């Protein structure tokens, strides 16, 4: 907790004021979703466009826009993160944000820090289509570090909830079918 932070009690536990406010806001949002399940359904979409004269690919997902590129070794300009880095970033950032913003408040776990590092192996020769090489990512791993004053059994509850409910992790560990259409 930062120096000077106001400490309050929420559900019999000490926590800083900002964490308490966020916990109450989360509970209010979840109550609305429970009362109206149809409002919980969403269909996020991302559009990627290769603009003429632009090395990078523009990616848009309302209300955000970002860029992607490939490494020079396979013909890209290496002027933006690769799709592989975005995939790893989605896994690592999804873990941190979901643990901090949703699960910790729901489980009543105090988190001083959460860090996640996602890694994988990749053979760029496979991406370039060289014979006898593998284009698939290999050895996907995620290292999550929790810094909490809470006892181990509470952290284990948090870990189980994450493994059961983190959408990015579940999509990668229990793959869903991808429908591809060409037009």
Q: How would you describe the overall organization of this protein?
A:
The longest helix is centred in the middle third of the chain and has 25 residues, at 83-107. The radius of gyration is 20 Å and the shape is globular. It is 38% helix and 22% strand. Helix 1 (17-35) packs across helix 2 (83-107) and helix 2 packs across helix 4 (152-165). With 183 residues, the chain is of the alpha+beta class. It has helices spanning 17-35, 83-107, 124-127, 152-165, 167-173; strands spanning 7-10, 13-16, 47-49, 57-61, 64-68, 113-121, 138-147. A hairpin with a 2-residue loop joins strand 4 (57-61) and strand 5 (64-68). The mean pLDDT is 88. It contains five helices and seven strands. The strands form three sheets. Strands 3-4-5 form a three-stranded antiparallel β-sheet, with no helix packed on it. Strands 1-2 form a two-stranded antiparallel sheet.
Helix-strand layout with pairing:
Blueprint: E1 7-10, E2 13-16, H1 17-35, E3 47-49, E4 57-61, E5 64-68, H2 83-107, E6 113-121, H3 124-127, E7 138-147, H4 152-165, H5 167-173
Antiparallel strand pairs: 1-2, 3-4, 4-5, 6-7
Order of helices and strands: EEHEEEHEHEHH
Structural category is alpha+beta
* Main pleated-sheet profile: 3 strands, antiparallel
Beta-strand content bin: 15-25%
Q: Name the average pLDDT.
A: 88
* Physical arrangement of strands within the biggest beta sheet: 3-4-5
Shape by Cα distribution:
globular
Helix count from the secondary structure assignment? 5
Please state the CA-atom Rg, rounded to the nearest Å. 20 Å
Number of beta strands: 7
Question: Cα distance, first to last residue?
Answer: 53 Å
- Low-pLDDT segments, ≥5 res: none
Helix coverage percent of residues?
25-40%
């Amino acid at each position: 907790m930062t120096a000077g932070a106001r400490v309050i009690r929420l559900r019999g536990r000490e926590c800083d004021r900002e964490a308490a406010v966020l916990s109450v806001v989360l509970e209010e949002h979840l109550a609305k979703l429970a009362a109206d399940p149809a409002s919980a359904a969403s269909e996020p979409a991302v559009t990627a466009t290769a603009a003429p004269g632009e090395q990078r690919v523009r990616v848009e997902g309302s209300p955000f826009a970002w860029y992607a590129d490939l490494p020079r070794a396979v013909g890209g300009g290496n002027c933006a993160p690769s799709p592989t880095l975005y995939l790893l970033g989605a896994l690592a950032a999804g873990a941190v944000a979901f643990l901090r913003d949703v699960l910790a408040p729901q489980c009543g776990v105090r988190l001083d820090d959460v860090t996640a590092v996602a890694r994988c192996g990749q053979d760029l020769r496979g991406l370039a289509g060289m014979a006898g090489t593998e284009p698939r990512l290999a050895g996907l791993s995620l290292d999550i570090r929790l810094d909490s004053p809470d006892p181990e059994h509470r952290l284990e509850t948090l870990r189980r909830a994450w493994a059961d409910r983190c959408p990015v992790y579940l999509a990668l560990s229990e793959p869903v079918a991808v429908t591809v259409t060409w037009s």
